[in-house]
Every structure is written in C-alpha cells, then in structure tokens.
Amino acid sequence: MPDLIKHAVKHLQKSLSKDYNKEVRSSHAHAAISGYLGFNSKKALLADNYGELIEDELSLFHNMLPPNTKVLEDVISRMKDTPLKELPTRVIEDTIKIALTPPCEVCGHKTSNSHSVFQGDDPDEPIAQVCSSCVQDEDEYDRCHFCDLLCRAEEINNAGECSEHYGESSFDEEELEDMESMLEYHMNR
Predict the structure, then answer these.
(1) Which of 19, 16, 46 is nearest to 29 (CA)?
(2) Do 87 and 113 sit in the same domain of this protein?
(3) Which of 96, 72, 99 is nearest to 7 (CA)?
(4) Residue 164 and residue 144 share a domain
C-alpha cells in the first residue's frame, strides 16, 4: 500500500532539484508537506489519521484545505540548514500542491491545473483526476448541463444530463404551456 506522503516527498525533492537546483533532505520535505497541510510534523499528520499511512490520493486531494502558509513558514523557520529557506513560500506551496495532486488517469502527469472526475450518482467523491489537456477529449469527458459535474462521457446522456439530473431537460405538456405563456407575457410588456 502506497504512502502518499512519501510519494509526495519524492516528487517535491525531484521537482525542487530539477527546477531550482535545490537538494532538500527527506526529513525537511516531510516536514514541509506536513506544514502545508497544517501540521507541525509528519508524526502529527499521521496521528490525525489514526497512525495509518495516507493511501487514498483522490480523497486527500479533494478534501484538502487550502495550504496553511503560516504553519509551513513556521516549520521551515525551525529547520537548521535547508535550501527551503532560500525559496519563496509560494514556490514551495505550488510545488507541494502538484506533489499531492493525483496523476492524470490518461497521461499520468501531475499538474496544478487538473480536474476531478466524478460519477453522476456520487458527486461527493472523485473517481479520478484528469489534466487540462486530456479533459478536452469530448469522447472521454463531459460536464452535466445542470450541475457542471465532470464525468466520463458515457455517463452523460444526449440531453447533457448526469444520472442525478436525468430527465430534467425534458418537459411535459403543462410545463411547456407555462413557459410559452411566460414568454408571451414578457414579450408583450
């Protein structure tokens, strides 16, 4: 079972090394990610998860609060010698956000500009993540016209409805008469 924080640490280290030529120790990367999430240490983060490793990447990402800049800055300021002190907090936050983002289910890339994919009958829990480039494939993804929920294309019917809103765009005879009457009223004003 994967430890998502450990994977995020590796991604953070690799990204900071590649993009900024900064070699960050594993313990400092763990502390920074914990601070980003509002915890003073990885131990505190795990304690909040009943001592269990965090394994549900989609749930973690979807339910994650905005970054806790103050705790992150406090955690970094307590570190002795770290290249994290040489980088703007915003750079560290953006890099951690990408590190915690689930990879695109199509291309596997982690980007800060990605979208959660849902099932129409369960709009609270995402089933996948898709990057902005791959989401453009209309044969694979579509949004419900009523709730704007991103779903796999096969879940959206020809009327543009997810399963939760199925049939809402078709009107019975009485509803059509009411709409025509209202339209006529407003046109004659």
Answers:
(1) 16
(2) no
(3) 99
(4) yes
Q: Which residues of 134-167 are buried (b: 16+ CB within 10 A; e: fewer)?
A: bbeeeeebbbbeebebbbbeebbbeeebbebbbe
Q: Judge whether residue 50 has pLDDT over 70.
A: no
Residue 73 burial (CB < 10 Å; 0-12/13-18/19+)?
middle
- 8 Å CB contact between 74 and 92: no
- 52: its two tokens: 């269990």
Structure tokens at 158: 């020809």
Residue with the larger pLDDT of the pair 42 and 15:
15
Q: What is the mean pLDDT of the chain?
A: 87
Containing domain of residue 45, as a range?
A: 4-100
Domain's final residue, options 100, 121, 138: 100
